[in-house]
Amino acid sequence: MSGDLFTENQELRQKLESLMAQARLNEQVMRRFQDAELRMLSVGSFKELLQFVLNEMKEAFDLDVVTLAIIDQEYEIRRMLMDIGISATEFPSLIFLENPSRLLRICGNSLEPVLGQYNADSRSSFFPRDTPPASIAILPMLRQKRLIGSLNLGSRNAGRFAPGMATDFIGRLAAFVGICLENLTNSERLKHLGLTDPLTGVHNRRYFDQRLLEEVGRAQRQSFPLSCLFLDVDYFKLVNDQYGHQTGDCVLREVAWRIKGQLRSVDVLGRYGGEEFAVLLVQTDVTSAQIIAERIRQSIAGQQFKGEGEEMLPVTISIGVATLPDCNRSQKAETLAQALVAQSDQALYQAKQEGRNCVVSGTQ
Q1: Which of 31, 84, 219, 330 is the most exposed place for a label (fewest CB within 10 A)?
Q2: Which member of 188, 215, 275, 276 is catalytic?
Q3: Hey, what CATH topology would domain 205-361 get?
C-alpha cells in the first residue's frame, strides 16, 4: 500500500512540475507579447512600426517570416509613405492590397485567423515565394468592424501553426498592429492637412520650407545638385478682376495640376503664396532644370483654361530657375537654402521684366 502511495505521490509531483513548467513558459510568452505591445505603443512613426513588425518581431517570437498586408484602396497609405521618404524596396515584406477580396477568400466572412500548412495556390500572395514557410498564421486586422489588412506569420517548423490551436495571443498581437497602424495613419492625415494648401491640394509653404532644408542638407552630404523653380501666374489680378475670384481659383487649381504633371514623385511642389508656386528638383542640374521648367511653361501656355462658367481663357506663367551645383559642406544648410530661394526669386523677377511667359535661369 505504501508503494502505491509513493507511486501516486511521484505521479502527482511530476504533474505539478509539468504544470509549473508550463506556467513559467506561459508567463514568458505573455511577457514577450506584453513587451511587443508596449514597444508598438511607443513607436512614433511609420518607419519605427514597420521596422519592429517586419524585422524585430521575427527574432522576438522566433519566426522565419513576418509580412504585413494593408488594404489601400485609395492609394492613401502608399502616398503617405512616399511623402515621408519610405520606399517600397526598404520593406519588401510590406504588401498592399487594392481591395479585401484576396483576404476574404482565405479568411471568409467570419474573419477568423487562419492557421495551417502553407499552400502556394491560395497563400503565396502573403509570403515570399522563393523561401516559403512550412506553416503559417494569417491574422486579419479589424478596426471599427472594418477589415484593414492582415499580420502574417510563417515558420519552417511544420507544426508551429496548426488548425485548432489557440490564437488568443497572436490575435491580440495583430489587433495591436492594427491599432498602431490606424493611429499613425490618422496622425499623418492631420499632418497632411496642416501641410497642404486647401485650394490647390498641393503642399503649402510651410511644407516646402521644411523640405527645402532637408534637401539642401542631403545635397551637401551626398554631393548632388539641387534645383529650385519659382513660378508665378502672369497677370493673375486681371483674371480675378475680369472673370471673378471663383474663376481665379479654378485657374490656380489647374496650374497646380499641370505643374505636378511634369514632375517626378521625388520632386517637391508647394504653393508659395497667392499665385506663386515653388518646386524643388532633386538631383537635377541647371540644364535639366531649365528643360523641366520649359516643359511646365509649355504645358500651361499651350492650352487654354476653362473658367467657372463656359469661358476659355489664355494663361501663361513665368519661371525663375536656380541651382546649387556643388554644395559647400562648411556652409550652413539654412544659408544655402536662403540663397537658393533668393536666386530663383531673382530669376523670376527677371522673367517678368523680360516680358513674362518665359524661363530665366540664375546662377548660384
Answers
A1: 330
A2: 275
A3: Alpha-Beta Plaits (3.30.70)
